[in-house]
Amino acid sequence: MPADANAYGDIFGGWLMSQMDMAAGLVAARFSKGRAVTVAMDGMQFHAPVAVGDEVSVFCEMVKVGRT
């Protein structure tokens, strides 16, 4: 069983969230032409398990730009 899967063969949600964070970070860094960080995440709801071998695609859209 791969390291990012549980005993049932489902991918860990944390791995999926990491992929989403990396994709969002790339979009933010391209927009800002510099460093960008994830400050907070309000929540995540998974609707179905992702099995080892499933194809996962991540799409991003810039919704808000702020300053910290």
UniProtKB/TrEMBL annotation:
Q: Which Pfam families does the record associate with it?
A: 4HBT
- Please tell me the species this chain comes from: Sphingomonas bacterium
Keywords of the record = Hydrolase
Q: Does the keyword Hydrolase apply?
A: yes
A single GO BP term for this record reads: acyl-CoA metabolic process
Q: Which family does it belong to?
A: Belongs to the acyl coenzyme A hydrolase family.
Look up the domain of life of the source: Bacteria
**Cellular component aspect of the GO annotation:** cytosol
- Any idea where the HotDog ACOT-type domain is? 1-68
Q: Which GO terms describe its molecular function?
A: long-chain fatty acyl-CoA hydrolase activity
Q: In the UniProt record, does the keyword tRNA-binding occur?
A: no
Provide the protein name.
Acyl-CoA thioesterase
